[in-house]
Amino acid sequence: MDFKFSEEEELFRESVIEFAKRYIEPKWIELDEQGRIPIELIRKMGEQGLFCIPCSDKYGGMDGTYLMAAIAVEEIAYHEPAVGLAVYTLLNNGWPYALELFGTEEAKQEILPRVAKGEAFYGIASTEPHGGSDVGGTTMRAEFKDGKWILNGEKIYISGVRELQELPYGGGFFTVARTGAMEERHRGLTAFNVLPKWEGKIKPGFEPTIFDDIGRHALSTGGFKLTDFEVEEIHRLGEVGKGFYLVMQGFNLARILVASACVGSARWALDQAVNYFREKKLFGRYLASFQGINFKFAELYAELEMVRLMIYKAAWMADKIYKEKDPAYKPKDLNIPVAIVKMKAPELATKIYEEVLKWFGAYGYTKECNIYRGWLGTFSYTIGAEGAQNIMRYIIARDVIGSEYVRHQ
Ligand SMILES: Cc1cc2nc3c(=O)[nH]c(=O)nc-3n(C[C@H](O)[C@H](O)[C@H](O)COP(=O)(O)OP(=O)(O)OC[C@H]3O[C@@H](n4cnc5c(N)ncnc54)[C@H](O)[C@@H]3O)c2cc1C
User: Fold this and answer.
1) Which residue of 386, 392, 393, 409 sits with most ligand 1 atoms within 8 Å of its CB, as the best mutation to test the pocket?
2) Residue range 29-38: mean pLDDT, rounded
3) Spatial distance between the Cα atoms of 325 and 319, rounded to a whole number of angstroms
4) Do residue 55 and residue 162 come from a single domain?
5) What integer pLDDT is reported at residue 1 of this predicted model?
6) Residue 27 CB coordination number (10 Å)
7) pTM of the prediction?
8) Could you tell me the CATH number of the domain that includes residue 211?
9) Considering the domain boundaries, does residue 81 fall inside one?
10) pLDDT of 302 higher than 70
11) Shortest-distance atom of ligand 1 to CA 126
12) Which residue segment(s) compose the domain that 360 sits in?
C-alpha cells in the first residue's frame, strides 16, 4: 500500500488552494447570500482547469486523475463551505467524465471542451416527481422517430437548471428516459445527453422551473418538462436499454465528489472551532480545556479523517477502473466504498456543524456567524442529492449480504 499523493497531485492541491484563497474565499458569503455564481467566476475556474479534470486533453480536459478531481472539490468546499460552487465543480467533473466514458465521439467533441472552459454546464437529471430513489421507475419517454429521439416527461430537483440558461453557450444533463415498457423497469431505460440550451439558444419543448432552497443558494435547483423535445442520435449514451447501468456508474463517480464536498466543508467548520478554542475562555479557563468539549472535538476530527481517507481510496479505485483499466478492478467494486462515503460524509458533516454551532453558543445561532451556511449546504446531501441516504444503506446491504436476501421487489 502507498498512502502518498503523487507530486502532481500535491502541486495540484496547492494550486487549487491558491486559486480558492484568491477568487473564492473572499466571496463565498456573497455567493450564498445573492444566490448566484457569477458567470465570470465560472469562466475563471474553467481557465484554471477546474472542470473536466479527469477528462482527456483531447476534449479540453486536464487528463488528471479522478483523485485530483476529489482534491479540487474538497479544497473548493473548504473555501466555499456553503457548497454551491463546490457542487457546481463536482457536477462538471463527475458527469462530463461519465460522458467521456459512455458518449459518442461526436458528442464528446461537441460538449466536453465547452464544459472544460466554463462556457457550458453539464450535470445529471434523473429525479422525477414520483421519487428520485426509484430510477428504475423512470417515466420520461424517449421514442425514435425520423432519425431523432423525441423525449416527453418531467425531471425535478435538478441542480443547474438556472445556470445552464444563464451561461451564454448553455448546457445540459446526462439523463435517462424510458425506451422500453414500464414493466421492464430498469432494463427499459436508455441514457441521453439532453441539452436544453446549446449554442446560445433554448431549444423548443423545454419548460423550466426553479425552487427556493433552504441552503446551498449559489447553485440553483429546478425542474423541467420536456414536450416533444428532440435529441439527436449522436446524443444517445451507450446501447438502448442499458441506460440504468450507465447512470449508476455515473452516480458512483459523482458520489465520490459529493463526499469530498462534505468533507471539505466540515474541515472548514472544525478549523473555525480550533480558532475559537484558542481564544474563548469560560469559568476562567479555555473552553477547550473541558473534556466535554475537547473529547467531542477529537471524536469528530477522527471520524472526518477516516471518511476522508475512504474517499481517497474510492477515487483511487475509480482511477484503477476507468483510467488505468486495471483488470483487477471492476466498476461494481466501487459500489461499497462509494456508498460508504456518500452515506457517511454528509451525515458526519451535518453532525460536525451542529456541534460547532453549539460550541459558538448563541452567536452560532445568529446569521452574523456564517457557520449555519455550511450546515444547510451539506444537509442537502443528507436529504438525498445524488442519492438518498437509505439507498446507500441498501447498496451496502445488498452487495454484502446478497441481492436475493435484501431486494424488496
Ligand atoms: C439540493 C438538491 C439538489 C439535487 N440535485 C439533483 C440533480 O442535479 N439531479 C437529479 O437527478 N436529482 C437531484 N436531486 C434529487 C435527489 O437525487 C433526490 O432527492 C434523491 O434521489 C431522493 O429522491 P427524492 O427526494 O424524490 O426522495 P424519495 O426517493 O421519494 O425518498 C424519500 C425518502 O425515502 C427514503 N427511501 C427511499 N427508498 C427507500 C428504501 N428502499 N428503503 C428505505 N428508505 C427509502 C429516502 O432515504 C428518503 O429519505 C437533488 C436534491 C437536492 C435536495
Assistant:
1) 386
2) 97
3) 8
4) no
5) 78
6) 18
7) 0.97
8) 2.40.110.10
9) yes
10) yes
11) 11
12) 243-406
**pLDDT, tens digit (0-9, with 9 covering 90-100), for 221-253:** 999 999 999 999 999 999 999 999 999 999 999
Q: Spell out which residues line ligand 1, taking CB within 6 angstroms.
A: 123-127, 131-133, 157-159, 213, 216, 221, 380, 383-391, 394
Domain count, the chain: 3
Residue with cell 419517454: 141
Question: What's the whole-number mean pLDDT along residues 105-132?
Answer: 97
Ligand 1 atom index nearest CA of 123? 8
User: Do residue 268 and residue 288 come from a single domain?
Assistant: yes
- The reported pLDDT for the residue numbered 407 is 82
CA of 155 to the centre of ligand 1 (A): 12
- Per DSSP bridges, beta strands 221-232 and 170-178 are unpaired
Q: Residue 391 C-alpha to ligand 1 middle, in angstroms?
A: 9
Going by CA atoms, what residue is nearest to atom 35 of ligand 1?
A: 390
Q: Which of residues 202, 237, 272 is at a domain's end?
A: 237
CA 127 – ligand 1 centroid, Å: 7
End-to-end CA distance of the chain: 40
Closest atom of ligand 1 to 386 CA is 17
Distance 387 CA to ligand 1 centre (A): 6
Q: How confident is the model at residue 409 (pLDDT cuts 50, 70, 90)?
A: low
Question: Between the CA atoms of 79, 81, 84 and 88, what dihedral angle is there, to the nearest 10 degrees?
Answer: 50
**Protein residue closest via CA to atom 28 of ligand 1:** 131
Q: Does 158 reside within a domain?
A: yes
pLDDT digits (tens, 9 = 90+) for 340-360: 999 999 999 999 999 999 999
Tell me if 2 is assigned to some domain.
Answer: no
- Strands (E) in 128-283, as ranges, are 141-145, 148-159, 170-178, 189-198, 201-202, 206-210, 221-232, 236-237, 281-282
